[in-house]
Amino acid sequence: ERSVRLRGWYELMMENKEELARIITAENGKPLKEAQGEILYSASFLEWFAEEARRVYGDVIPASANDRRILVLKQPVGVAAIITPWNFPSAMITRKVGAALAAGCTVVVKPAEDTPLSALALGELANQAGIPAGVYNVVPCSRQQTAAVGEVLCTDPLVAKISFTGSTATGKILLKHAAGTVKRVSMELGGHAPFIVFDSANVDRAVAGALASKYRNSGQTCVCTNRFLVQKGIHDKFVEKFAKAIERELHVGSGFDAKTTQGPLINEKAVEKVERHINDAVSQGASIVTGGKRHSLGKNFFEPTLLSNVTTKMLCTQEETFGPLAPVIKFETEAEAIAIANAANVGLAGYFYSQDPAQIWRVAEQLEVGMVGVNEGIVSSVESPFGGVKQSGLGREGSKYGIDEYLEIKYVCFGGL
Question: Which residue of 7, 83, 275, 383 is most buried, as measured by CB atoms within 10 A?
């Protein structure tokens, strides 16, 4: 029954995909084409978990005594609190809620204060799909009330599970709250993704991957590249081609304008952070190759920016920018690149371009991240486990592993046989 209802919800999302995409663009400024892509991605989680609902397999384990049998059952954890960010206001909900409902849990969704409408629109479609009242619940709230609402969701003993996507700092606060009642937690936290281009790379493919990985959603995704590491032999060629691609292919404008690839940043604070990172880098010797300032369109629009002569001492290589800024560091050896990439205390995604098979194996295994793109700048898909290592989080979402986050394993010893 859960599978059928989730499938119905998926079909309603597909029927209403244009309206849902327009809500996203109106809420967070994402270009309409990207918003349409998000809705397809978002709906795919409901389709995927509708199918996974029927595959929650238990186990029968051979026992050490003839008069007993060992059974393993999987049962829903209970009420799940779902706390989601503004940058993917639809997909971050369905990736969690699809798994939770497939497992048999009910959910309370607290969407980001900037983007509550996507969550409410999904609620309307859930009602139309016949998902029972009280199963999918939405609690929008103001920025002023966010901390208080988050605390209630994490401390209430009726809540069995917390799933959060957002900053590492906020994740740590929620973990402390959840510890009081020892709740199950999934955390998909901040990233600081390296993008390494080795001398053996196909430079044109690396530039295309860099453009996709860095500037999607104006640099406001947790798996966006934050640091480009380019080997000495091809550094100058890569920077030159990357700058030309930025100037040729990226267009800043309203998300509703068909030619726009770069919408506004989410708010003034986000713009100020990009400016601060650029000013800090330039003051320490970095060069602005292209961009570098606010766009003439308005206060939340920023020019796609490329910096060269960047060092590891600059803020933009120590913190996640979450904006359209690409800093390039020149390196000499593979070991040096891996050391710089792994120096961060977070590890969500990492990317590298190489055509050396031995190097590909070495680097893929040594990068301290949960997801690696090899000669590929976009790695997210419903079939793949999404999540990070170190301070980038706990658990995995999507894929065949995603439903496990909402299930308890119960051991039943059947004796006296």
Answer: 83
